[in-house]
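Predict structure. Chain length: 189.
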Amino acid sequence: MSFNTYGQKKYDSGAAPVQVWAEVYGVKHGGGVIEGFEALPVGSVIPAGTPVYLDKAGGTIKVLKTYEVAEATTTAKIKFYSRFGLPKATDKLVLGEDEHTVSSVADAVDGVAEVTLSAVITAAKGDVLTDDSGIKVNGLIWHDVVKEEGDSLGTGAVVDGGRIFADRAPALPASIENELVTVKFEKGI
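Prediction complete.
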């Protein structure tokens, strides 16, 4: 169930819910409205544990898009899981300290997208690329946020203290995990 979209009464994904948070002891007051939610396709999910920036209580939540590498590569082509949709040509993606420009994007097949970058990249399976949006992450989304037909706004609660099962949440670069010092990343059961 998602508690974060206006007008929504019930959501049934057809699957058992996944426990992402082991414990939550810090939530930013007021939550916020998710920027760009109206442009998401119906059925999109912003999963619990997604890295975000909340500018103020009741303000705007900016989502940091992350892409987990599905297959190791040492070429300009990279395959990653497309949980947040696909980047566009000319988007900038960051892996570690290196920035890469997207040249072309193929449609995702079985949740895996192939993206061609403007230069060779060396990436291992499980590495995480982020968009180069300049977002300074200050928390993680508490509950899944689901876009349904007719939803124009989505809201989220932002956790800034707690214990999360890292293997059940979206993959994050170590740099973001290190920034969130009051969130403990644990392996699930």
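Summary: The chain has one helix and 16 strands.
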